[in-house]
Amino acid sequence: PAGWREAVVAAAGALQAGGLVAVPTDTVYGVACLAQDSAAVRGIYSLKGRNGEKPLAICLGDVEQLYRYCHVDVPDELLRDLLPGPVTLVLRRSEELNKDLNPFTSLVGVRIPNHPFMRDLARACSGPLALTSANISSQGSTLTVSEFQDLWPQLSLIIDGGPIGDIQSPECRLGSTVVDLSVAGKFSIIRPGCALTPTVEILRQKYGLVPESS
């Protein structure tokens, strides 16, 4: 679409300058900053009024990059069956990741949204993006930019990708399915999200992983 390249360049520039940018994803609207920029990460927490113990996910453009920031104990094919898509995979973090990002945990959630703008934006930035939903903590997820108007004054840039999904459908506001794959051979669902059934089917039937509680 017209203006796509300019929007990617403008958003990447705002992020590189330490800003917070509202972005469309394949599930809900998000707010992104550079994960390796500690001041920007602090800015996301204050923007959302978020408890400092709640971790932020990282967002990448391609599966290959995941190996740089995480220790992976699952087959590459499994990663590619789930990503890009509406799933956050929780893995053990590597030393490459900013120590100020989620310093209280050795794990990190990774998102590769199935959204061409987000993937282009992640590729245009040198390191991972930190990504969280565009809303005040504990309030509902947002599917249009007008739904998070109260955050606008604190954002450097807002990318309006139009309504995401069906704004009348509660299912569309569930956000990504969050699954912990940090223990070899097992999985545990941290948040059911919008893609629970197909995700569990792939993990159990195709790869023989078992729920961690069992």
From TrEMBL:
Instruction: Give the EC number(s) under which this enzyme is classified.
Output: 2.7.7.87
Q: Which first-to-last residue range defines the signal peptide? A: none
What is a single molecular function from GO for this protein? tRNA binding
Which residues lie in coiled coils?
A: none
Q: How does it sit in the membrane?
A: Peripheral membrane protein
Matching entries from InterPro entries are given as: DHBP_synth_RibB-like_a/b_dom, Sua5-like_dom, TC-AMP_synthase_SUA5
List where in the cell it is found.
Cell membrane; Cytoplasm; Mitochondrion
Record domain YrdC-like: where = 5-195
Gene Ontology CC, one term: plasma membrane
Catalytic reaction(s) noted:
L-threonine + hydrogencarbonate + ATP = L-threonylcarbamoyladenylate + diphosphate + H2O
- Name the Gene3D superfamilies for this protein: DHBP synthase
Enumerate the Pfam families for this protein: Sua5_yciO_yrdC
One GO BP annotation is: regulation of translational fidelity
Q: Which UniProt keywords apply?
A: Cell membrane, Cytoplasm, Membrane, Mitochondrion, Transferase, Transit peptide
The record's comment on protein family reads: Belongs to the SUA5 family.
Q: How does it assemble?
A: Interacts with RSC1A1.
Its biological purpose: Cytoplasmic and mitochondrial threonylcarbamoyl-AMP synthase required for the formation of a threonylcarbamoyl group on adenosine at position 37 (t(6)A37) in tRNAs that read codons beginning with adenine. Catalyzes the conversion of L-threonine, HCO(3)(-)/CO(2) and ATP to give threonylcarbamoyl-AMP (TC-AMP) as the acyladenylate intermediate, with the release of diphosphate. Participates in t(6)A37 formation in cytoplasmic and mitochondrial tRNAs. May regulate the activity of some transporters.
The protein's name: Threonylcarbamoyl-AMP synthase
The species this protein was found in: Furnarius figulus
